[in-house]
């Protein structure tokens, strides 16, 4: 009898130790810790209409532990708390932290494809209406040229001396693949992987009638790319409404303007 009680106590202690270790992964006073930053960015994105009605989300790879932080599924993203986060070890694809009351985000396989195939440091998924509008207007590719804001987006080239990413120039064209939506988020993986293969320089993929996935080597860069691309998609829709193709040459806009 007493040994049974002891066994249970030992089991409980082991469980408590494991739970405490898991909880430590999401407890930090550092606002830049992935568990805190996901909450902060989701709030910010909510007020941009990018992650409303539980849609969209963010995942961040911790630069020290290399663990991947992912928000749970079907929750109001602007109300997330650090303790709501799933944590995955990308070496084993196993969760090292699983909050009891939630399921992992349906976007997880897409986030993982970006981490594995693009060495991403963070992946942002939004249900931006500008992305949806571009996917309705354009075919399998969104292109925009000669707009100052494209200079925030990497060209895919690296500086041979510093090894740093070279961004697009004002005179370049930004091209982002558009893939078709599927009934279930996880079924998007095939289309996403195809687009990653066909567009080695791309830092985003638009999903028709759904939204956009944007990634970068760090969360700071992914945030900048997402903001710049969203600005460009919004502008492209306005240009299109005026009859101006977003990828038209400098000076050619007057030929197209329908005002
Ligand atoms: C409004 S439901 C949207 C989901 O199906 C999906 O597209 C999405 O972006 C979020 O999935 P989630 O599993 O809540 O992280
Ligand atoms: Zn979505």
UniProtKB/TrEMBL annotation:
<dbReference type="GO" id="GO:0019509">
    <property type="term" value="P:L-methionine salvage from methylthioadenosine"/>
</dbReference>
<dbReference type="GO" id="GO:0005737">
    <property type="term" value="C:cytoplasm"/>
</dbReference>
<dbReference type="InterPro" id="IPR036409">
    <property type="entry name" value="Aldolase_II/adducin_N_sf"/>
</dbReference>
<comment type="pathway">
    <text>Amino-acid biosynthesis; L-methionine biosynthesis via salvage pathway; L-methionine from S-methyl-5-thio-alpha-D-ribose 1-phosphate: step 2/6.</text>
</comment>
<keyword id="KW-0963">Cytoplasm</keyword>
<dbReference type="InterPro" id="IPR027514">
    <property type="entry name" value="Salvage_MtnB_euk"/>
</dbReference>
<keyword id="KW-0028">Amino-acid biosynthesis</keyword>
<keyword id="KW-0479">Metal-binding</keyword>
<dbReference type="GO" id="GO:0046570">
    <property type="term" value="F:methylthioribulose 1-phosphate dehydratase activity"/>
</dbReference>
<comment type="function">
    <text>Catalyzes the dehydration of methylthioribulose-1-phosphate (MTRu-1-P) into 2,3-diketo-5-methylthiopentyl-1-phosphate (DK-MTP-1-P).</text>
</comment>
<feature type="binding site">
    <location>
        <position position="107"/>
    </location>
    <ligand>
        <name>substrate</name>
    </ligand>
</feature>
<keyword id="KW-0456">Lyase</keyword>
<dbReference type="InterPro" id="IPR001303">
    <property type="entry name" value="Aldolase_II/adducin_N"/>
</dbReference>
<protein>
    <recommendedName>
        <fullName>Methylthioribulose-1-phosphate dehydratase</fullName>
        <ecNumber>4.2.1.109</ecNumber>
    </recommendedName>
</protein>
<keyword id="KW-0486">Methionine biosynthesis</keyword>
<dbReference type="GO" id="GO:0008270">
    <property type="term" value="F:zinc ion binding"/>
</dbReference>
<feature type="domain" description="Class II aldolase/adducin N-terminal">
    <location>
        <begin position="36"/>
        <end position="237"/>
    </location>
</feature>
<keyword id="KW-0862">Zinc</keyword>
<feature type="binding site">
    <location>
        <position position="127"/>
    </location>
    <ligand>
        <name>Zn(2+)</name>
    </ligand>
</feature>
<feature type="active site" description="Proton donor/acceptor">
    <location>
        <position position="148"/>
    </location>
</feature>
<dbReference type="InterPro" id="IPR017714">
    <property type="entry name" value="MethylthioRu-1-P_deHdtase_MtnB"/>
</dbReference>
<comment type="similarity">
    <text>Belongs to the aldolase class II family. MtnB subfamily.</text>
</comment>
<feature type="binding site">
    <location>
        <position position="210"/>
    </location>
    <ligand>
        <name>Zn(2+)</name>
    </ligand>
</feature>
<feature type="binding site">
    <location>
        <position position="125"/>
    </location>
    <ligand>
        <name>Zn(2+)</name>
    </ligand>
</feature>
<dbReference type="Pfam" id="PF00596">
    <property type="entry name" value="Aldolase_II"/>
</dbReference>
